[in-house]
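README: folding subset

This subset contains proteins for which both the sequence and a predicted structure token string are available. Records are stored as plain text. Below is the entry for Pyridoxamine 5'-phosphate oxidase family protein (219 residues), shown exactly as it appears on disk.
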Amino acid sequence: MKEYSKSKLNRIKRGQNRGTYDVEKINGILDAGFICFAGYIYDGKAISIPMAYGRNGDKIYLHGSQANRMLNALLEAKEASLTVMHLDGLVLARSGLHHSVNYRSVTLFGSLKKVENDADKEAALVCVMDQMISNHWDSLRPMHQQELDRTLVVEMTIETASAKIRDVGVNDEPEDYELDVWAGVVPLKMVAEKPISDEQLKENIAIPDHVLEYYEQHK
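--- output ---
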């Protein structure tokens, strides 16, 4: 079992029993989603925004316009922290204090660089697309050079990380189990609904098989 090394930066202090540094488990949480939250400093202010990402090995790819202030601020800092979180359930206890949620979350720390080469930029964008929906890139028209030139792609190398997972039920005070109060878990999940074709599609263009496959797997 390969683990990320522990340091003051990534060590989990609160709820250590829910923490893991296992690389495979962390990658599994990353691969289950495609939206991360990136934290950065701009003009002396702390800002956090959601971004689409793609993972390839220990590399995370982000993209935006060449003028994207977040990506440029991260490149200037040469390091970043990203968070990915999946909400899996509401944990409803017998008292307000013990309400909680079931979740899987990962926090990444790493160094950044700008992807310069056109072929590498396109490969990174394919990675981001595949993170969202597999096998979609080849069904699209090729990118124009002007589009590629306007796109800023940033590569983050994961240097260390940690994850926290809660996947258990209610944890009430011992005396509260005798109360006539309902307690339990409401499972939550993100689901796909049936694809809706664009109204301006040409006639006889069917929904691609890989899109229907995604729907069937996630409905």
